[in-house]
Specification:
This protein is mainly alpha-helical. The protein contains 5 helices and no strands.
Length: 81
């Protein structure tokens, strides 16, 4: 059984991975990358325990973020339901 602490740990692990990607891809500082990520649909879904997005690999979540950044923000919500 996955505990709430395990969920939060997985969410944080993926969020850190995404922040590092944004920093590298956009040349943002860590603070800028965190602010940028927090405005995305992917971040909202990742922090929503009901989506189970935290169970996906970091790379899968990154692919979904890349799609959102390319202008496809609703794919995540359609595919996850």
């Amino acid at each position: 059984m996955i505990t709430s602490a395990d969920q939060k740990k997985a969410m944080l692990n993926i969020a850190v991975f995404l922040v590092e990607y944004i920093m590298k891809d956009k040349g943002y500082s860590r603070d800028e990358a965190v602010e940028f990520l927090m405005k995305t649909t992917v971040y909202a879904a990742l922090m929503d325990e009901e989506t189970d997005l935290y169970l996906e690999s970091r790379e899968s979540v990154l692919d979904i973020l890349k799609e959102e950044l390319a202008g496809n923000p609703y794919r995540l919500l359609v595919d996850r339901k």
